[in-house]
Amino acid sequence: MTELSCECGMEDCFPGCGCELLSLLGKRWSIFLIMHLMKSEIMRFNEFLDVLNSLSPKTLSKRLKQFEKMELIVRDVIPTTPVRVEYSLTQKGRDLGNILQQLKSLVHSWRAK
Description:
Blueprint: H1 19-25, H2 30-40, E1 42-44, H3 45-51, H4 57-69, E2 73-78, E3 84-89, H5 91-112
Antiparallel strand pairs: 1-3, 2-3
Helix pairs in contact: 2-5
């Protein structure tokens, strides 16, 4: 019997092992977007661009779609004139954000030593 493996090529991996998420977190802006959503709770597209002024709209759109596909964020369309779109973290996204905040705290503790 052969073991299934994910695209990362590691022997102990399998489809759904989490490597897809780790790969996404390694892409530019991913961690910053999650961290800003943790802080603000709800953000609109242009708010992301205002906060991360080097981020291109194309990259932002791509990351948000990837996060939505992985069920880390929810895209909420508000039927107003003009239509508003807001993004917020799902419970999975908040769980991930909490881990990222812990990692940030760990790094800060290293600097204090």
